[in-house]
Specification:
Helix 1 runs antiparallel to helix 2 and helix 1 packs parallel to helix 3. With 104 residues, this protein is mainly alpha-helical. The longest helix has 24 residues.
Length: 104
Amino acid sequence: DKGLTPTEEMVLITQSKKELQQIMSNYVGVFRSDLRLYRALNRLKTLYDETEQLYRKSKIFREICELLNSINISYLVIKMAIERKESRGLHYNTNYPEKLPLKY
């Protein structure tokens, strides 16, 4: 960690966690649409870039690692939700309202 500084801006990490929760709740919740999913993906990209920049210039500590992991998991959830072209169970997409038959 030579040349890195301790993160004194914990408010940035706290705010980013809240923002991530809002993105996932508002855009990727049970009731979603393609427009919301793509908007979430764009917002997540910005959040990732900001967090990665902070991560690179500060000493590693638990909160920033948890935030990066949460962002990565959120990315996977959003990408898989975009790929799903059906409404199934608790996941309703307004662009695909009809339930497709199960394939065995």
